[in-house]
Amino acid sequence: MSRLFDKRFWMLTLAAAFVVGVGVGCGDDEDENNNDDDDTVNVIEGHITANTVLEAGRNRLLRGAVFVDPGVTLTIEPGATIYGESVSLGTLIVSRGGKINAAGTAAAPIVLTCDQPVGSRGRGQWGGLIINGSAPTNQGAESFGEGDTGAYGGSNPADNSGVLSYVRVEYAGIEFSPDNELNGIAFQGVGNGTTVDHIQVHFNQDDGIEFFGGTVDMKYALVTAARDDSFDWTDGWTGRGQFWVAQQRGDEADNGFENDNSNNNNEAEPRSMPTIYNVTLIGDPNGPESVAAMRIREGAAGIYANIIAQGFLGHNLRIDQESTFAQAMNGNLVVMSSIFHNNAGGWSDGDGLFDAGEWALDGKDNLEADPMLTDPHNFTAPNFTPKAGSPAIDGTVRVAAPPADGFFTNVDFIGGVSPNDNWTTGWTTFAQN
User: Fold this and answer.
1) In whole angstroms, what is the distance from residue 253 CA to residue 324 CA?
2) Where is mean pLDDT largest: 85-89, 240-244, 313-317?
3) Is 261 exposed, middle or buried, given 0-12, 13-18 or 19+ CB atoms closer than 10 A?
4) Quick check: 96 pLDDT over 50?
5) Which is it for strands 143-144 and 151-152: parallel, antiparallel or unpaired?
6) How far is CA 323 from CA 92, 140, 274, 301, 422, in A?
7) Cα 285 from Cα 248, distance rounded (Å)
């Protein structure tokens, strides 16, 4: 019998819940009423070996590394809140061949959060969410995740690891091993049969969202207050993205985008070459840390269009290594129809070998101007929509039309948020603790 998820075996009293740190105040304020319907805490640990449903309205605690085994589907109901235990490095890991079905709604998002009460929460208080798939990477037939988080990679670009929709991951990124903090959500060799939309990573200790190879697509993604990079990828990610927003807090932050191919072999195939349209990257000009808006290096390529990037202390765009310069010059790396504003570092000169500013401003419809966003640097109630008269919506900058492939939405604005549809509100959080 599995020792993981038998309610009869793992039921604890509410008094015991306070001993392990799960109290009424843990999780987002808006969800407290939904988490207190049951006077017990269900501890989940080890391996989930059979299809399992986690209902809303119950206290669920991840103790240590919890694996969804191959062939098993973990279903999380809309409105459910799952807590990661800090003292045991609670982490949720979907093994290669396993699935997560976390389909929340705007009215009832799924929240994965810490086990600390409101007022005591911060970055790195539990592990986060790791999904391992069977899609290709450029690191060989199989790779292994940091901190013994499982094998990933394979030969199936259409691999399906399940659904993430209206899901928030908060206060994660605990140090799993020395100098090895976890990402809020890590997609490791995840395939494009997986559905990912309307996700938020908030106050993560390491990167917000990172792709390690794979082909998975992602639409409507928000990263707020990540300590390291907001969006990061490496090892041959070739997926698609649209409608992304990052907001940094300068107490701890790095790049808006950090895009690599492979540091072992810059020419490794498949090359990191995503197609990404409509993104808003907001740095913190008051610092002290908020580095480059976009850093592309180690032979990475891709199409990046309809982007707003403002308020970083470093570069608008930094392109490193000759292997990456070559991708820019041969047309495999394109940054177009984008607006850059108030990024103190200007343009990277590529160590004198490549003029990123000349390249980006030469016939690519990029502009240095104020995009006139409504209130993007507000930490408690930001508004990323462009105001009337903004060059993001008035035709000053040509809006690039994305591929007509069934994934992308054809729009008439630059940036990750439409002036008529502020999708970053209602199901998200901007609370600090």
Assistant:
1) 24
2) 240-244
3) buried
4) yes
5) antiparallel
6) 36, 20, 17, 10, 38
7) 10
